[in-house]
Amino acid sequence: MTAGESSGSVVRRILLGSQLRRLREARGITREAAGYSIRASESKISRLELGRVSFKARDVEDLLTLYGVADEAERTALLSLVKEANVAGWWHSYSDVLPGWFQTYIGLEGAASLIRGYEAQFVHGLLQTEAYAHAVVRHGMKGAAAEDIDRRVALRLERQKLLVAERAPDIHIVLDEAALRRVQGGRDVMRGQLEHLIEVAQLPHLTLQIMPFSHGWHSGESGTFTVLTFPESDLSDVVFLEQLTSALYLDKREDVAQYERAMAQLQEECPSPEESVTLLRRVLTEFA
User: Fold this and answer.
1) Residue 239, helix vs strand vs coil
2) Sheet strands side by side (includes 238-242)
C-alpha cells in the first residue's frame, strides 16, 4: 500500500461521512434518531459524518435503509467506500507519539493537490531540517523520552516525502520573518535551516515567500493556518488550525473563503519568491 492510498482513505472517510449527512438531512432525520437505528449515540453519528472514525459496513447499510436509499447501484457505490475508508494510514505506527487530532491532518495533507499555509513562529513542518525539527519537538514535548522525540521527528521527516513524490502537490508557503529569526537549537541549526529553505525554494512546485518585519500589519495577523485543496471535486477545501491540545478543521464555504482571501492577500503583500530568497540569504549572513 502506498502513502497516497493510505492518505486517500481519510478523504474517502470524509466523503462517505458527508454523503451520509446529506442523505440524513434530506430526510429530516435527527442525529439522535440515526444513532438509535445503529445502536449508537448522537455523538457517534456526528463523528461518522465528519469522517473522524472508521465505518462498519452493517452500520452504513442500516443508515442507507433508514435514509430511504433503495437503489442498488447507489447503495453499492457508497458501501464500496467503506472498505477504502477503513485502510490504516502509514502514520498509524506512530500513534503512540501522535495526537489523535493530528492523524486526520496527516491523511488530508497527503491527499491534497494544493497546500497553502502561513506560519508565524516556526518554519513549516514540511520544510524543516531534521536538526531544526528535533529542537522544536524537544521543546514541545518537555520531559518526553528521547525515543519518543526521535519518533516524532521521524514522522515529520516521513511527511516531507511529499516534496519529492511523483505526484507532489503544489505548495504555497508564507513564513513570517519571525520564524527565521526565532532561534531553534542554536546558530548552527538555524544556519542549516536557512540554507535548506534556500535550496527547497528552487523546487518547481513550491512557492516560498517571506513576510518581512518591515511590512507592518498584514493579512496573517490572526495566526498560523493551512488550507488544503483536494483533486476530488466533491470534497471541499479544509482549513486546519492547530491549537495547544487540539485542532479545528473548518470546511464551511464561508469560513474557508475568508482564509483563502487572507492567503491570497498574504501572497500579494509579500515580496516575490525571488526577493524572498534574497531576504533568506541576508538573514543567513547573520548566522555565519
Assistant:
1) strand
2) 206-211, 170-176, 114-119, 225-229, 238-242, 247-250
pTM reported for the whole predicted model: 0.80
* 192 Cα distance to chain centroid: 25
Of the CA atoms within 13 Å of residue 37, those in its CB half-sphere come to 18
Q: Which residues make Cβ contacts (< 8 Å) with residue 12, sequence separation at least 6?
A: 81, 84, 85
User: How many distinct structural domains can be found in the chain?
Assistant: 2
Residue 251: half-sphere exposure toward Cβ, Cα within 13 Å: 16
| CATH classification at residue 44 | 1.10.260.40
Give the pLDDT score at 274. Answer: 98
- Per-residue model confidence as pLDDT tens digits over 126-158: 999 999 999 999 999 999 999 999 999 999 999
C-alpha cell at 124: 513549516
Q: Is 201 helix (H, G, I), strand (E, B) or coil?
A: coil
Domain span holding position 16: 3-85
- pLDDT score of 96: 85
C-alpha to C-alpha distance for 94 and 207, rounded to whole angstroms: 29
pLDDT at 211: 95
* Residue 41 pLDDT level (bands cut at 50, 70, 90): very high
Local structure of residue 270 (DSSP, 8 states): S
CA distance 17 to 40: 15
Q: For residues 141 and 195, state if they share a domain.
A: yes
Contact of 128 with 199, CB cutoff 8 Å? no
Evaluate whether residue 92 is within a structural domain: no
CB 113 within 8 A of CB 16: no
